[in-house]
Design goal:
Helix content: 25-40%
CATH topology of the largest domain: D-amino Acid Aminotransferase, Chain A, domain 1
Structural class: alpha+beta
Strand content: 15-25%
Bound molecules: adenosine monophosphate
Largest sheet: 8 strands, mixed
Length: 584
């Protein structure tokens, strides 16, 4: 299959903002793709060569790519640079220069998917001294054989800027329609929740239809999508929701890790399902020593602590440590951590995800030997509200964020990838309703003036509507930033800016600049009000109005442990609005 067919679909997708239309283009593409390369097509479409959790990024530097474009087209680097300055998009530069190539060659071969995929794979995997030369050569070769449109997408893929705005759920939809029926989406999504490798699933579906995915099992080394929590703002409401009896655990303020353990290897996955093993050699060692089974998948929160006092420290210290890839040894010493384990999903060949919470917890305590560096999360199992309130106070005292309440009913399974009322968070902030923090996604920017000229003066923020899979605006955020922060946030946003509003953004307000929904910021709000402009929960509580946060203030935290889909949801905003009313 020729790469031009994929590039054509990219163009169609780029030209639409309608999800249904996007799905249709994907279905057409999937139907004509030979089964053997179905996985490659899917990885390429996501700007990757492997599933996300393999951690293999293309991310070639702009400079190197620019040199390769110049080499392949016969233009000078200065020419290419000048174009880049005016277009701001290396993909467009490649498209134009390839279209006006100065040297035409007789020996150009039409690019097929295998060729592009294998070159990109080599580029991603090449490391070491001579890697820059190797990459340069491979890129120049690809561009030499490219048509202009192909060059645009190859360059965007290489530099990590393919950004077509296709959500994983849209790909699942298209796979269901192409190889089963639309109604089978749920069944496929269920497998995806414990085996989130879209390429592998797509290939199997294409080869064997729905029957093929029956053979997928929870697998050590393949991260499961994490189970998520709803939120409520009183113990009373929680008790009511959980039928009068529940487990309450301390809600630790750290970084969630899912550990996949075998005697040979301990792999650690973040909430984004990113493999973060290399950043936590100490956690690997702790788990290697304290988990006494052949194989296991367990989950917990990793919290920075003061080793002398055992005191828990602010979460930022783990995220700071995560950034310091190259100073790992000192980071391990400077920011020691402790693990608080709370779930067991798999042990020695047995899948525990379909077992009730207390059975999983029992298994966890069977297989883990506690030490000063690893413990099971502190919990009570109670029907007594006063006892739960007291436990909440204790958790705050201990440096935690609040409590995580968990259902203990027969069907209190581990629901991979879903947010439900089986787990309910109860945080300190909810005590004063109008002092609540929420995690919002940046979807656009407004240019600053005066002291803020040249950077963004305010950001357009959105909540995530998980039912519609889109980002709905809720406030303009311009307070709480230091000058340095604004500069660095502006740089971060400029790197992901878009020409049009992203198809998953639902906004009536027009930002000066639209960006890819990517960064999640922690925002403190004073009050939730109705707004005729913001689109969060538009029309749901009041005709022609959405919800807005009044007096939003940036708390200083970029939640890089959260993906945009982990942001506060529209539904949570509705619940918070209703909770706020009750208080008044
Ligand atoms: P939030 O990040 O506010 O949406 O809250 C959910 C997160 O709380 C989970 O993803 C975990 O990282 C964290 N957490 C802390 N303690 C626990 C616990 N005992 N059980 C489950 N999750 C916990």
């Amino acid at each position: 299959m020729y790469y031009s067919e994929l590039a054509e679909t990219y163009q169609q997708i780029e030209a639409t903002t309608k999800r249904l239309e996007m799905t249709r283009f994907l279905v057409d593409l999937f139907k004509k793709t030979p089964s053997e390369i179905m996985d490659k097509i899917i990885y390429l479409m996501r700007g990757k060569v492997l599933p996300d959790f393999k951690g293999l990024e293309l991310g070639v530097a702009d400079k190197l790519t620019l040199r390769a474009i110049a080499k392949a087209t016969g233009f000078s680097e200065a020419d290419a640079m000048q174009k880049l300055n005016s277009y701001g998009d290396l993909g467009l530069v490649a498209e134009e220069l390839v279209a006006n190539k100065k040297q035409t060659s007789l020996f150009s071969e039409k690019l097929d998917i295998d060729k592009v995929y294998s070159s990109l794979e080599k580029i991603a995997k090449t490391t070491g001294n001579r890697s820059q030369d190797m990459k340069f050569k491979l890129i120049a070769e690809l561009l030499h054989d490219s048509e202009p449109v192909e060059a645009k997408y190859i360059v965007r893929s290489l530099t990590g800027k393919i950004r077509l705005g296709i959500a994983d759920m849209t790909i699942l939809d298209a796979l269901a329609i192409a190889f089963a029926t639309k109604e089978d989406h749920a069944r496929i999504e269920q497998v995806y929740s414990f085996y989130p490798d879209l390429g592998s699933l797509g290939k199997t579906l294409s080869l064997q239809g729905l029957d093929g995915i029956k053979d997928y099992n929870i697998t050590v080394g393949i991260p499961l999508r994490h189970m998520l929590a709803e939120r409520l703002n009183s113990i009373e409401a929680i008790m009511e929701k959980l039928d009068g009896q529940a487990v309450f655990e301390y809600k630790y303020d750290g970084l969630r890790l899912q550990a996949h353990i075998t005697p040979e290897k301990v792999s650690l996955f973040s909430r984004h399902l990113e493999d973060v093993s290399a950043q936590f050699p100490d956690v690997q060692e702790i788990l290697h020593e304290s988990v006494k089974v052949e194989s296991a998948i367990i989950e917990g929160e990793c919290v920075p602590i003061n080793l002398e006092t055992g005191e828990m420290l602010p979460f930022q210290m783990v995220s700071r440590r995560r950034g310091r890839k190259y100073e790992l040894d000192s980071a391990v010493e400077d920011f020691p951590i402790k693990l608080f384990l709370f779930d067991c999903l798999y042990a020695d060949g047995v899948d525990y995800t379909q077992q009730p919470l207390l059975t999983r917890r029992e298994k966890l305590s069977d297989i883990v030997t506690p030490s000063p560096r690893v413990e099971l999360s502190n919990l009570i199992n109670t029907s007594d509200q006063a006892e739960a309130e007291k436990f909440f106070e204790n958790s705050l005292e201990a440096g935690c964020e609040g409590l995580m309440a968990k259902a203990i009913s027969e069907d209190s399974f581990y629901r991979a990838g879903s947010r439900g009322w089986q787990w309910i968070k109860y945080k300190r902030d909810y005590r004063s309703q109008i002092n609540d923090t929420v995690d919002l996604v940046v979807v656009g920017g407004f240019m600053g003036h005066g002291r803020r000229s040249g950077v963004y003066g305010a950001l357009l923020m959105a909540a995530y509507n998980d039912a519609q899979d889109r980002f709905e605006t809720i406030c303009k955020l311009g307070t709480g930033f230091s000058d340095e922060m604004l500069v660095s946030i502006s740089d971060m946003l400029n790197a992901i800016k878009l020409e049009h509003k992203h198809p998953r953004i639902y906004s009536q307000m027009k930002a000066d600049v639209w960006v890819e929904p990517k960064y999640v910021l922690e925002v403190l709000g004073a009050e939730i009000t109705f707004s005729p402009i913001h689109t969060c929960a538009f029309g749901e509580l009041k005709e022609d109005s959405g919800l807005a946060i009044r007096f939003p203030r940036f708390k200083g935290n970029i939640r890089d442990d959260k993906s945009p889909e982990d942001a506060t949801t529209t539904k949570e905003m509705i619940d918070m609005y209703k909770g706020q009313l009750k208080q008044i």
